Amino acid sequence: MSAIKNKVQLIGNLGNDPEIINLESGKRLAKFTIATNESYKNNKGEKVTDTQWHNVVAWGKTAEIIEKYLTKGKEVAVEGKLTSRSYETKEGEKRYITEVICNELLMLGK
After folding, report:
1. Could you give the CA distance from residue 105 to residue 47 in angstroms, rounded to a whole number?
2. Rounded-to-integer distance, Cα 95 and Cα 92, Å
3. 13 Cβ partners below 8 Å, 6+ apart?
4. Torsion angles phi and psi, residue 83, rounded to 5
5. pTM exceeding the 0.70 threshold for the entire prediction
6. Could you confirm whether domain 2-40+47-107 is CATH 3.40.50.790?
7. Of 70, 88, 86, 80, nearest in space to 13 by CA
8. pLDDT one-digit tens code per residue, 25-69
């Protein structure tokens, strides 16, 4: 059961080209967003699509694959864990961000 305590699986499309960051330590980091869509009918019977945006972070070999093959609009399946962190802006405001740390990536579509 411990393997499913913090597990996220998403299928969606990249909202932008991945941002690749090469750290001084030699590690590579990929950051991108994916959109997931859910459709339903409202009380008038009209189809409504709800889009949720998810921040995704990948490290190492996964980041290298993302850099080489993924661009805006590509459909992917992501599996990982959910994390939250905070940071301060230059103006001193505290901001919070929730991200999926990608453990596995599957490229879908064409």
Report:
1. 30
2. 9
3. 34, 35, 73, 74, 75, 76
4. -135, 155
5. yes
6. no
7. 70
8. 989 999 999 999 999 999 999 999 999 999 999 999 999 999 999
